[in-house]
Amino acid sequence: MSAMPSDRRTQALALLEWLEPSAPKRVAENLDVFHDDATEILLGFAFTDVVAREGISLKTREMLTVSMLAAMGTAPSQLEFHMRAALNTGVTREEIVEIVLQVAVYAGIPASMNAITAAKSAFTSV
To answer: pTM for the complete prediction?
Structure first.
């Protein structure tokens, strides 16, 4: 990795830390092993360029992220992370339950069942 982290990388990791304090070190190490620029490119785009925007609250963004990841049904570890992050931004367990039930209607029972598994895990780790 470069000697000086970019502002974009620093900002992304700071927001990630706000969402879940233990995440930045683990995520950055994983991405840095892949490529020196991966953290700045991927997390910089996601967290600095998009998630940090002022248009909607971080709590709302996390609710939307949980909904989309649950509907996708293909990113279980990211779904569980964002459920924990949602709880850390003030989303209640009841709101996550309602999101998961809504997912069943629009994305199907299998996606909802996968989201239930992630929610149960997220609820026990927060």
So the answer is: 0.90
CA distance 125 to 83: 10
Q: 47 and 75, same structural domain?
A: no
**Domain span at 74:** 58-125
The CA distances from residue 94 to 10, 20, 60, 117, in Å, are: 33, 20, 15, 15
Please state the domain count of the chain.
Answer: 2
DSSP string, 34-70: H-TTHIIIIIIIIIIIIIT-SSS-HHHHHHHHHHHHH
> How many C-beta atoms lie closer than 10 Å to residue 93's C-beta?
14
What amino acid is encoded at 41 in this protein? I
Q: List, in sequence order, the alpha helices (H) in the chain.
A: 7-19, 23-34, 38, 58-72, 76-88, 93-107, 109-125
User: What digits encode the pLDDT tens for the residues 27-61?
Assistant: 999 999 999 999 999 999 999 999 999 999 999 99
